[in-house]
């Protein structure tokens, strides 16, 4: 394994220390390794979600029948709904 050095703000140092003192980690390397593995997993999950969303969007766009919109009729319907809700 390769050693690297990173500078961290005091709040993250306290977080690492607390994890070690509570027994949830045995070293600062364990904490950083776990954090990076979690980040990597989250980024993979985000990429999968984005791909699914893009696919769903594309499928929706491909199947929608927009047709023509009568803006005046749309405005009249909106005014009528507002009047009823009123």
Automatic annotation (TrEMBL):
Keywords: Toxin-antitoxin system. One of its GO terms (biological process) is regulation of DNA-templated transcription. It comes from the Bacteria. InterPro entries: ParD, ParD_sf, Ribbon_hlx_hlx. Belongs to the ParD antitoxin family. PANTHER family: ANTITOXIN PARD. This is Type II toxin-antitoxin system ParD family antitoxin. The lineage of its organism: Bacteria, Pseudomonadati, Pseudomonadota, Alphaproteobacteria, Acetobacterales.
């Amino acid at each position: 394994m390769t050693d690297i050095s990173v500078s961290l703000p005091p709040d993250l140092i306290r977080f690492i220390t607390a994890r070690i003192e509570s027994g949830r980690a045995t070293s600062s390397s364990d904490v950083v390794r776990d954090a990076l593995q979690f980040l990597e997993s989250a980024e993979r999950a985000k990429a999968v979600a984005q791909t699914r969303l893009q696919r769903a969007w594309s499928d929706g766009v491909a199947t929608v029948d927009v047709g023509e919109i009568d803006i005046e009729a749309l405005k009249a319907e909106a005014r009528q709904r507002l009047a009823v809700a009123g």
